[in-house]
Design a protein that fits this description.
There is one protein chain. By secondary structure, the chain is an all-beta fold. About 0% of the residues lie in helices and about 40% in strands. It has strands spanning about 15-20, 30-35, 40-50, 55-60, 75-80, 85-95. The model has no long low-confidence stretch (mean pLDDT about 90).
């Protein structure tokens, strides 16, 4: 008997941001995030925070129907903190999309 994989797949659109200062994008859920260089915009659906090395990364889950344009790595994005009623910002961090093997090892080749 064969069993079909029951893995859960999603096609979420996410934007990883390193907040400037004390910027907390959890307080901007439902608000629009705007790219300073690209002019791209999207609505923030939810936020997941985690540490990557010494950086606190905030992964913004975007409403896929609201995404307009393409955010650029390194650009500053801004949104409105609804709790404090002020503008918050952060820098877009890239997500690893691939790797190149340059030195042969025990279980892989160049």
């Amino acid at each position: 008997m064969l069993r079909v994989s029951d893995g859960q797949w999603s096609t979420d659109k996410v934007l990883r941001v390193v907040g400037a200062g004390t910027s907390d994008f959890n307080n901007a859920v439902g608000q629009q995030v705007t790219g300073g260089t690209s002019g791209a915009t999207a609505l923030i659906g939810s936020v997941i925070r985690f540490r990557e090395g010494s950086e606190l990364v905030q992964e913004l889950n975007l409403d896929s129907t609201s995404v307009s344009g393409t955010f650029q790595t390194g650009e500053t994005v801004t949104a409105t903190d609804t709790t404090l009623d002020l503008e918050i910002s952060g820098s877009v961090k890239s997500i690893v999309t691939g790797a190149d093997v340059t030195v042969r090892g025990a279980y892989y080749s160049v």
